[in-house]
Structure formats: structure tokens, C-alpha cells
Amino acid sequence: MQIENxxxxxxxxxxxxxxxxxxxxxxxxxxxxxxEACRLYLRGRFALSxxxxxxxxxxxxxxxxxxxxxPTFALAHSGLADCYVGLSNSYLTPIEAMAKAKAAALRxxxxxxxxxxxxxxxxxxxxxxxxxxxAADAExxxxxxxxxxxxxxxxxxxxxxxxxxxxxxxxRTV
Length: 174
Hints:
The chain is mostly helical. The protein has 10 helices and no strands.
């Protein structure tokens, strides 16, 4: 808990001060004006990063609390989508988990259509669950366009290309 609090405090300070590239990107487009919702979002991302079912369930709670304070907080909706993707086939049935994930990703996009994290979440759902490779590729390509140095857009686009039998293109992507 001490490490979690220190991390949340450090990230919150970076967001306020704009001391790194990620914070500058977030500061250019206010995520939320509610500092408590932002703190809960950061705690949710920290819990989700642990990649266990109990921590993912905790993350869901944090994201839901953040959304109770600011229902239009797109990053929190995207975090919720990522949680449900992570719980698919391990704790929830894929149909139940991915329906919740897709609804959360679409709410994130509705709140902020330019949010790369939301398009990344939706791309994973379209590829991994809907098997709509073209739509997933389009989402990941948009993410890469908006974040050319972001690893996740390249990783997931490479995954789609590899899955579709384009191994050489996948290697060039990642």
C-alpha cells in the first residue's frame, strides 16, 4: 500500500508539473477536472498492472469509483475496458467480459474520440473477440498515427498482421 501511494503521488505530481512526455500529452487534453477521480484512475492502472484476478477486480472498483465522480472520464472507461479484456476466459466468460469491455471502450470513445487508449482497447476487442481483423488493424493504425513511439499500438498491430499470415509485415511493425 505504501508503494502504491508513493507511485500515485509521484504520477499525480508529474501530471500537474508536466515533467515528462506522457504528462504533457495528458495535460494538453484535460482528462478530468476532478483530482480524486484522477487519483482513483491511477490507483486502478497500478492495480491492473499487477495482472492478477484479485488486483484486476480491485482495479475495476477504482475505475468505477472514478467514473462515479466523473462519468465522462474517458481514461477511466478505457481502463475498465482493459480490465474486462484481462478477465475474459480466466474469471468471466468471454461473452460476458467482452460485452462489458466493448461497452466501456465505446463509452471512452464517446467521451473522447481522440483518446488513443480507448482505440487501443477497442482494437483488441475487435481483433481478439470479434475476429474483425480489418477493424482491429484500422484501430491500431490510428493509435500508431497518434502515438508513433507508443509500444502497444505497434505490438497489437503486429499481432493482427501475424495472425492474418503477414509475418514479415508484423516483424517490421514491431
